[in-house]
Amino acid sequence: MPATIDMASLDQAVIDDLRSLDPDGSGGVLADVLETYLEDAAKRLLDLESAQKSGDAEHLKGTAHALKGASRSVGATAVAGLCAKLENDEPNPEEDLALLRAELDRAFAEIRALLD
Hints:
This protein has helices at residues 12-20, 28-54, 57-73, 77-88, 93-115. It is an all-alpha fold. It has a single domain (12-115), classed as Four Helix Bundle (Hemerythrin (Met), subunit A) (Up-down Bundle), CATH 1.20.120.
């Protein structure tokens, strides 16, 4: 696993903090956290889209809140910011979800590059 990677969507300081949790330096802890995030975020995006389609504002806000926290924990600050908008503002869910989907794609690409 490379020591650093040029990242626009992920906060390098958070990645470094996660990397430091691995006592043997193998990168296993970081990889586990990031792989779990990839799986969880993909599921939550589907939940957000479903809530938007069904008009379930409470479920949309609750799912956005959960994804915001998970995103902050892996340094995906732009994703977290978009989730905060969905959670707290009077959102335009269709437009906001499109922005979130695009930012998640960027963050996912950076995470996959870290895992390679």
